[in-house]
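Curious: why this fold?
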Amino acid sequence: MPAGVIHSVGRALPWRERTAHTVCMHPALFYRPGIRLTLPELTAARLDGHVVEVGEGYMPADTVEGPDARATGIAELVPPRTAACGPSAAWVHGAGDRPPAVHHVRRTSAVRLRTPPSGRVVHHDVLLPPEDVTTIGGIAVATLDACALELALAAPRHPEHVPWLRAVLALSPGVAETVRARIAAHRKHPGRRAALTLLDEVTAGAGIRTW
């Protein structure tokens, strides 16, 4: 279950440093199974403490598991003209220890995309506006505010998103109020009241600062 903090064998960064650390990870520091090393070799290296698993690959245990490393770890699952969103964006930004079992992406293209069905990725055919997109580790990712907004609106119908919402809100003071203001501005948005109620419950229950 998401813990709201980065935890790994390697070094962890404070939130402000993690969000600023958006350059692409050097290819030499990331190992994808079948490229340079086989999966059995990487598994053995992990058991020996030499590498840690990050998304769909591995990196040396003494390197920083920042947002760029996490984004690199799921890059193969984020198709062109889409952005990681929801729980996937939350994990990239630093929420939780483990990535979600199923990743989520939204299109960044104004044109609808034809995407093949996948058991690993849920494609949401809803445009993510340019102002809600940032680039981390070479892939498009929903901004922290946009990620929290999406989770808040979805969580009343999908309770499995609640831990991710709680973890995202804990990353930065003020995100909860920003999300609350965005929801309040759209009075006819479906699920608006449920999302606002959930935000109140999550921030109060977790003692999350809203300023």
In short: The chain is about 35% helix and 15% strand. Residues 1-22 have pLDDT under 50 and may be disordered. The radius of gyration is 17 Å.
